[in-house]
Design goal:
This protein has 70 residues and is mostly helical. It is 79% helix and 0% strand. Helix 1 packs across helix 2. It is elongated. 0% of the residues are buried.
Length: 70
């Protein structure tokens, strides 16, 4: 293995260990800094499908496109 690959694996392992330690010993700040933004983004991206599946929304009626002036 090349030195760069070993260095990259070492940095990855150290980062994973640091994130685990942060989440283990100071969960509140970990959640506020990392988990909350990820959760908010996930909810924002999936909200339309969830709301449609639960019947919380209805399809918009665009009457100005469907009516014919007479």
């Amino acid at each position: 293995m090349s030195d760069h690959l070993l260095l990259a694996l070492g940095v990855l392992a150290a980062s994973a260990a640091g994130l685990w330690a942060w989440s283990r010993w100071h969960y509140r700040s970990f959640w506020l800094c990392l988990r909350y933004p990820l959760t908010a983004i996930t909810v924002r991206l999936t909200w339309r499908k969830v709301a449609l599946g639960c019947g919380l929304t209805k399809k918009r009626q665009r009457f100005w496109f469907t009516t014919v002036p007479g």
